[in-house]
Design goal:
Layout: H1 8-12, H2 15-20, E1 32-35, E2 38-41, H3 42-45, E3 49-52, E4 55-57, H4 61-71, E5 81-83, E6 92-95, E7 102-105, E8 112-114, H5 116-126, H6 131-134, H7 136-140, E9 145-150, E10 153-158, H8 164-187, H9 195-209, H10 221-235, E11 239-240, H11 244-258
Helix pairs in contact: 4-9, 5-8, 5-9, 8-11, 9-10
């Protein structure tokens, strides 16, 4: 399916190697990346563990890459829908002249029949979390981010916050798209036990592989670091302090298990 070009193929088809060096265990990595305090070998960046705003992660970037390749393997059974595949807001026209106003999708390059959780991944990330990716210098001018290093761990604190309109998109996508999709798949007896890991593996690819975070001409070092930690947050499982994405998925899982009403507002704050 064309949608796999956005996820699995970016991991194994050459983009990851062009951006960040070879696949884990597949050769020496001679690349480097500039962060706010220094320039680091990419091999080191991909091997460290992370603490992000108090959230602890047991998996390195290399661990997340390996896990995503396994989870997103296209040749596996599962439910499918006919979907756009890349339906973030950048691929939607708002037609105000219609009565009532309507939305029109365009650029169906990745449209086809594919897993419904893959179909919702791009809008879930890009509509909500990705302003730094498209406006790096504007975001940098307001961003406070710090990095401490010790014992193979990078500890990062940042204050990048979601504007209310982005939180609105998150509420809408979760309450009206993600949760109903999961409930429907469950009702059909086709909900995979690792649905959360599957979705997070796809979400990981969005900040990590849409654009090259190591491209110093595109991204200032502070935004490169922000993109890396956001990839860890999307793909990894936070412990102790819970990340926003994990709080959201915790609530979705609770509602899904109980077959109750849509999630409360607790995780939106």
């Amino acid at each position: 399916a064309p949608i796999h070009q956005l996820f699995y193929h970016r991991l194994v088809g050459g983009r990851l190697e062009r951006f960040y060096g070879p696949l884990p265990g597949k050769g020496d990595n001679t690349m480097s990346v500039a962060l706010p305090d220094d320039t680091y070998p990419m091999e080191k960046i991909r091997s460290v563990k992370w603490i992000i705003n108090g959230q602890k992660y047991e998996e390195s970037l290399d661990d997340l890459i390996t896990k995503a390749i396994e989870l997103l393997e296209p040749a596996q059974p599962g439910p499918s829908v006919v979907g756009h595949g890349d339906a973030h807001n950048g691929n939607v026209f708002y037609r105000e002249s219609e009565d009532p106003p309507t939305l029109l999708y365009f650029d169906p390059a990745f449209a086809g029949r594919h897993h419904p959780l893959l179909d919702v991944t791009k809008p879930l990330f890009h509509n909500v979390f990705a302003m730094w990716m498209y406006f790096p210098h504007e975001v940098e001018s307001k961003l406070n981010i710090s990095l401490k290093r010790y014992n193979g761990t990078f500890e990062v604190h940042y204050d990048y916050a979601l504007p209310e309109v982005r939180l609105m998109f998150l509420r809408s996508k979760v309450d009206h798209v993600l949760l109903p999709i999961l409930q429907e798949i469950k009702a059909r007896g086709e909900l995979r036990l690792d649905w959360r890991l599957y979705l997070k593996a796809a979400l990981f690819c969005c900040p990590f592989l849409t654009l090259n975070l190591a491209d110093a001409e595109r991204f200032p070092p502070a935004i490169t670091l922000l993109g890396l930690v956001m990839a860890v947050e999307m793909g990894g499982e936070s412990t102790e302090v819970r990340s926003r994405i994990d709080q959201m998925l915790d609530e979705v899982a609770r509602v899904l298990a109980m077959d109750t009403s849509p999630p409360s507002d607790r995780w939106y704050r």
